[in-house]
Specification:
single chain, mainly alpha, Growth Hormone, Chain: A, globular, SLC17A9-like, Voltage-gated purine nucleotide uniporter SLC17A9, transmembrane helix, MFS_Na/Anion_cotransporter, transport
């Protein structure tokens, strides 16, 4: 028999991090997210140079860029469920050790065969598979360990690592690209990830915890926590579907811009400095992400309804950001393009304090699983969206079609969330039909 509701809440509160623990883990996970994106955006930053070396056209470059998402979409649900089951921090550490190694080994894999596109595609699929568990496991971890009143700021702070990692790779990666070639970008990002894994293993996790996690992953050993997912109850709720569609739209729009913006600037403004367009948008996005989390928690503490705040964040993250994305396709000025790109990327970080936290509002006990479902939808759309963008650009000869696609996808998610989004915890008790 399960303990009554108040007893379960007391147990959950006891399991939450103390303030020093929360600060230590927030900083560590911020760095982990940063390194995840360093590895992820190595390919977009190096795509032009690799295309020149290997003779790829836009369609082939689109295959290489989108291949990451082929693997990324396959492990989202598993990552979230494992995070709910064995602890998100353990899932994150085990996957990071593998994706760090694969990233560092990517340049070496291209020497295994003359079929360079096949080798790079295989490497990126593996990287996507391994990174796919990260954000669902992170969502599970924060929903269990962070107080509800601090959740938006914590999530947005950790989420800022995605912009910080893209910024670091854009700045340092551009220099490495010019000085040592594209191979050095993969070596450095993969190597730094492995160093982070060593730090977390030594200072923040016990060996016994990792052994248990590996046992569950390899042998499927049972653990004490009830891990059944209430599928039927979850997917009968319109608010759950609203969160899934909104997360799908946010992820897909972000993936398209992340993958193609470096190439857009490189080809549209060939005389421009790579460090400018690879750095400035992400430099803007970091304080924007932190501000969105602070603003969200502050408004809720001032008495505004939680769902009102979540929807406001989505208006900024999906609505206003897509307006600036559209502007990118209708200007010939480099400085205006950098401004529009910075505004669009910066405003997209408001999604961290909107739908990403809304998933934790709805079902904290299985937030990792639910986020995995939503992000799988986004990753699948990313596969299609990134590849389709390359096809549209190649066939139309214009970048406007790509930005129109981003705006259309964003509008779908925003309208769905505004109509059906809620913030109350959903009732997951079995209905009479399920008994």
């Amino acid at each position: 028999m399960q303990p009554p509701g108040p007893a379960r809440r007391d147990a959950a509160e006891d399991a939450q991090w103390s303030r020093p623990e929360c600060q230590a883990w927030t900083t560590t996970l911020l760095l982990g997210t940063c390194l995840l994106y360093c590895a992820r955006v190595s390919m977009p930053v190096c795509a032009v140079s690799m295309s020149q070396d290997f003779g790829w056209d836009k369609k082939e470059a689109g295959i290489a860029l989108s291949s990451f998402f082929w693997g990324y979409c396959l492990t989202q649900v598993a990552g979230g469920h494992l995070g709910d089951r064995v602890g998100g921090e353990k899932v994150i550490l085990l996957s990071a050790s593998a994706w760090g190694f694969i990233t560092a080994a990517t340049p070496l894999l291209t020497h295994l065969s003359s079929a360079h596109l096949v080798c790079v595609t295989f490497s990126r699929i593996l990287t996507g598979l391994l990174q796919g568990v990260y954000f669902p496991a992170l969502t599970s971890l924060l929903s269990q360990k962070v107080r509800e009143s601090e959740r938006a700021f914590t999530y947005s702070t950790v989420g800022a690592g995605s912009q910080f990692g893209t910024l670091v790779t854009g700045a340092v990666g551009s220099l490495l690209l010019d000085w040592y070639g594209w191979q050095s970008v993969f070596y450095v990002s993969g190597g730094l990830t492995l160093l982070w894994v060593c730090y977390v293993y030594r200072y923040l996790l016990s060996e016994q915890d990792l052994i248990l996690a590996v046992s569950v992953l390899v042998q499927g050993l049972p653990v004490a926590r009830d891990t059944r997912v209430p599928w039927r109850q979850l997917f009968r709720k319109p608010s759950v579907w609203a969160a899934i569609v909104s997360q799908f739209s946010a992820a897909c729009s972000f993936f398209i811009l992340l993958s193609w913006l470096p190439t857009f600037f490189k080809e549209t403004f060939p005389g421009s400095k790579g460090w400018v367009f690879n750095v400035v948008p992400w430099l803007v996005a970091i304080p924007a992400s932190l501000f969105s989390g602070f603003l969200s928690d502050h408004l809720i503490s001032q008495g505004y309804r939680t769902i009102t705040v979540r929807k406001l964040m989505q208006v900024m993250g999906l609505g206003l950001s897509s307006v600036f994305a559209l502007c990118l396709g209708h200007t010939s000025s480099f400085y205006k393009s950098v401004f529009f790109a910075s505004a669009s990327i910066g405003l997209q970080t408001f999604n961290h304090s909107g739908v990403s936290v809304n998933i934790q509002d709805l079902a904290p006990s299985c937030a990792g699983f639910l986020f995995g479902v939503a992000n799988t939808a986004g990753a699948l759309a990313g596969v299609v969206g990134v590849g389709l963008s390359g096809y549209l650009i190649e066939t139309t000869g214009s970048w406007t079609s790509m930005f129109n696609l981003v705006a259309a996808i964003s509008s779908l998610g925003l309208c769905t969330f505004l109509l059906f989004g809620k913030a109350q915890r959903v009732d997951l008790s079995p209905s009479h039909e399920d008994l």
